[in-house]
Design a protein that fits this description.
Distance between the termini: 47 Å
Shape: globular
Keywords: DNA-binding, Transcription, Transcription regulation
InterPro entries: AraC_XylS_family_regulators, Homeodomain-like_sf, HTH_AraC
Protein name: AraC family transcriptional regulator
Pfam family, one: HTH_18
Radius of gyration: 22 Å
Number of domains: 3
Domain HTH araC/xylS-type: 181-280
CATH class of the largest domain: Mainly Beta
Length: 289
């Protein structure tokens, strides 16, 4: 038997837990806490054998392929048995979070999700993959990015599995010039802090989901992407103005979790590493080798 490795993130809106166990006790039955919440369970690797009970009834016995998902209601007195190695990411989302999302988007309250045990879902799988860096380093997790993932998961789960479809019409609202300026100023003045989408939305007198979609409509990018772009612009300023300043200090000053994080984002957005970009500004050449 082995001790499962667990990584966890938690807020009032949801919790995310990655559990990896190479050698679980195949006879152990786990009682899952009974809550007014839904789980979105994404299998990160193949899972050969699993059993799930709802109350006293065995509702599933079988395996899962990598990328498959389950959306059980946690109020169903669930119990499970892990009879093979597994690696999954579980999002526990209170019913209230889904209700709030539907109200904000003019949709009808869902009663639950269709029973889709083991359905293949590449959207939820890739959203789960995007959450893994935050689980590996919760202290450096970006709240804007986490909020964005949660909104995307709610929208996709409701539209694809919700028992009552949303009646919301096409989203047409955009930010007023004042709201757009306020949002950009808040992001620019909080590059090194854990600024949430909800806080910016409140300052703009909008719901979280409406703000996220309106911001993207106004700027062409999501709030989290705008934040990364601003951090890179600040990094450029420091690279150019202070040639002797180390990349470690620049990463910290611009709100990146560490130097590799700065290098990855900078390279993706600029097309060159910070060192190469700095050298190009000075007209020098970096020799690799």
């Amino acid at each position: 038997m082995s001790v499962p490795a667990i990584a966890h993130l938690h807020s009032e809106k949801f919790s995310a837990t990655r559990v990896v166990d190479a050698c679980p006790d195949p006879e152990k039955i786990i009682d899952i806490p009974c809550l007014d919440a839904f789980s979105i369970i994404v299998q990160l690797e193949d899972f050969a054998e699993h059993r799930l009970w709802r109350g006293r009834r065995l509702s599933y016995a079988g395996g899962y392929r990598q990328g498959s998902v389950s959306l059980p209601f946690m109020g169903d007195e669930l119990r499970c048995q892990h009879r093979a190695s597994y690696d999954n990411l579980r999002f526990n989302i209170p019913r209230q979070t889904f209700d709030d999302y539907q109200r904000e988007n003019g949709g009808r309250i869902i009663s639950g999700f269709r029973y889709e045990q083991g359905a293949q879902d590449q959207v939820l799988y890739h959203l789960a993959q995007a959450m893994l860096p935050a689980l590996r380093n919760p202290a450096a997790a970006n709240q804007l990015f986490i909020d964005h993932i949660l909104l995307a998961m709610c929208a996709h789960s409701i539209s694809h599995y919700g028992r009552i479809a949303s009646t919301a019409g096409k989203f047409t609202t955009t930010l007023t010039p004042l709201q757009e300026r306020l949002a950009k100023e808040m992001i620019a003045s909080n590059l090194g802090s854990d600024l949430s989408v909800e806080r910016i939305a409140q300052e703009c007198s909008l719901s979280r989901s409406h703000f996220s979609r309106a911001f993207k409509q106004a700027t062409g990018v999501a709030p989290h992407t705008w934040l990364l772009q601003m951090r890179v612009e600040k990094a450029k300023e420091l690279l150019k103005a202070q040639p002797g300043l180390s990349l470690v200090h620049i990463a910290d000053a611009c709100g990146f979790s560490d130097q590799p994080h700065l290098t990855r984002v900078f390279t993706r957005l600029v097309g060159a590493t910070p060192s190469a970009w700095r050298a190009a500004q000075r007209g020098t050449v970096i020799v690799l080798g």
